[in-house]
Amino acid sequence: MEITFIGSGDAFGNGGRFQTCIRVRADGATALVDCGATSLTAMRAQGVDPGEVAAVVVTHLHGDHFGGLPFLVLDGQFTRRTAPLTVFGPVGTRDRLHAAMEVLYPGSTGVRRRFEVDVVELDGAGGTRRCGPLAVRGWEVDHASGAPALAVRVDAAGASFGYSGDTAWTPALVTAADGADVFACEAYTWDKPVRYHLDYATLREHADDLGAGRLVLTHMGPTMLARTGDAEHAAAVDGLVLHAGPS
């Protein structure tokens, strides 16, 4: 499994980083974990073909994690994509995607496309849904976004990648991280509590409970970015590539 942090930033572009977008490639399939509003630009900048994306796994319905989906769908339309696109997300994803497309590009939902967009809403309790070789699961976490927010896992080819999404500390992260080869986890601030988000001081207290092979920090705000060198765990940067699973 190849894991690429196409975007590792927060909602506000701190550090000049793109918003959350993590490409997972395994067994011939490609998925994005989250697709923030800047994702299509980030993909172009890094030479990533949006047409190769078979699935998008959305943690929650805030713009910096979800807002790039209308652009990805429209890109497929204008590049004459024919392969289906599966969108996994929390309950409410189907309606929110429809509304977002109509707000950004009125009438776009009524256009007949050459490819299907299939929205699969995850149960938030760890139930498995599939897209080809990719197995996708989600667990509800503590982040207000007008719909359930999830920590997610993508498993394929004997490897596993997990992501916390945005959340305050919750035991659901222990479940989501258990056995993952790589677990990306929000560390929004160094030690200042922010409602519905995870600070690094709190994460560090619980890090031994996360049974992942490797813990990587992401979605970092200014105070965390200023102190990544003081952290005990590696911090993601845009373009970081990791490999997981059988060699």
What would you note in describing this structure?
The structure is a single chain. A 7-stranded mixed sheet has the order 6-5-4-3-2-1-14. The chain is built from 7 helices and 14 strands. Strand 10 (159-163), helix 5 (172-177) and strand 11 (182-186) form a beta-alpha-beta unit. The chain is an alpha/beta fold and 247 residues long. 49% of the residues are buried. It has a single domain (2-240), classed as 4-Layer Sandwich (Metallo-beta-lactamase, Chain A), CATH 3.60.15. The longest helix has 12 residues, at 93-104.
Summed up, what is this model?
The protein is α/β, with parallel strands linked by helices and 247 residues long. 20% of the residues lie in helices and 28% in strands.
